[in-house]
């Protein structure tokens, strides 16, 4: 039994915003983990959903479930849910997906970079920004001893809080120097042996000194 119809009305009102935020945060490469920021996003999605739904479809989402008696209020809740419009949920879902994609590709910062307002990037580290912006290209992971790993970056980590950086490289080929190398920079005098190995999960990046993005 509902004990507070005002609180329940607020919950119904926030539902589309919650749906939009969860989609947004689920798809975005950089997750929103701060509680206050998450609440702010839910409020934003709620308001944006209301405005867009009303302006484009004339289908707002304002619960009116109060009643003179408890029985009447419960009947209003039942009728309201039975006739619930899917439009605000659809609008919020689409909005969440679109904003997540824009965030993943740092579109906002890309525009600000182009007009020379700032050189900042949307990601907390260049790591995430580069892997997002350079999608669809092969990489060369270079190690301190001159070894190189060439392959397709199938997955990469995004744990910015703990600084965890891992890569899963598909269609990988190791290029191992046949003689001792003093630097990771390719030396024409040192030949390498190529070893194909399918997929490689790089869990420890301490020996990695550079990652090249191969653009053809």
Number of DSSP helical runs: 6
Radius of gyration: 25 Å
Task: Note the main sheet.
Answer: 5 strands, antiparallel
Please give the order of strands in the largest beta sheet. 4-3-2-1-5
Tell me, rounded to a whole number, the average pLDDT: 81
Question: Could you give the order of the helices and strands?
Answer: HHHHHHEEEEE
Percent strand equals 15-25%
Task: Compute the separation of the termini in Å.
Answer: 64 Å
Secondary-structure-derived class: alpha+beta
How many individual β-strands?
5
Helicity, as a percent range: 40-55%
Show unreliable segments: none
Q: Tell the overall outline.
A: elongated
Account of the 3D structure:
The protein is 43% helix and 20% strand. It is built from 6 helices and 5 strands; from the N terminus they run H-H-H-H-H-H-E-E-E-E-E. A 5-stranded antiparallel sheet has the order 4-3-2-1-5, with no helix packed on it. Strand 1 (138-143) and strand 2 form a beta hairpin. The relative contact order is 0.12. The model has no long low-confidence stretch (mean pLDDT 81).
Question: Which features characterize this protein?
Answer:
6 helices, elongated, alpha+beta, 216 residues, 43% helix, five-stranded antiparallel beta sheet, single chain
Q: What would you say about this model in short?
A:
This protein has helices at 5-27, 35-57, 70-82, 87-104, 107-114, 126-133; strands at residues 138-143, 148-156, 167-177, 192-202, 208-214. The chain has 216 residues and is an alpha+beta fold.
């Amino acid at each position: 039994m509902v004990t507070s119809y005002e609180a329940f009305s607020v919950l119904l009102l926030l539902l589309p915003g919650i749906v939009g935020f969860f989609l947004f945060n689920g798809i975005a490469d950089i997750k929103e983990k701060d509680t206050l920021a998450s609440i702010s996003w839910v409020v934003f999605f709620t308001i944006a959903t209301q405005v867009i739904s009303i302006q484009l479809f004339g289908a707002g989402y304002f619960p009116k479930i109060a009643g003179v008696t408890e029985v009447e209020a419960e009947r209003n809740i039942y009728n309201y849910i039975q006739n619930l419009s899917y439009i605000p949920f659809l609008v919020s879902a689409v909005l969440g997906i679109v904003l997540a994609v824009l965030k993943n590709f740092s579109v906002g910062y890309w525009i600000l970079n182009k007009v020379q307002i700032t050189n900042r990037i949307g990601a907390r580290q260049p790591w995430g920004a580069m892997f997002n912006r350079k999608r669809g290209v092969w990489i060369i992971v270079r190690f301190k001893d001159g070894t190189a790993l060439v392959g397709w970056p199938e997955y990469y980590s995004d744990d910015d809080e703990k600084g965890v950086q891992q890569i899963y490289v598909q269609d990988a080929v190791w290029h191992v120097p046949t003689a001792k190398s003093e630097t990771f920079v390719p030396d024409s005098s040192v030949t390498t042996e190529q070893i194909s190995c399918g997929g490689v999960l790089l869990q420890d990046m301490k020996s990695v000194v550079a990652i090249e993005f191969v653009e053809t």
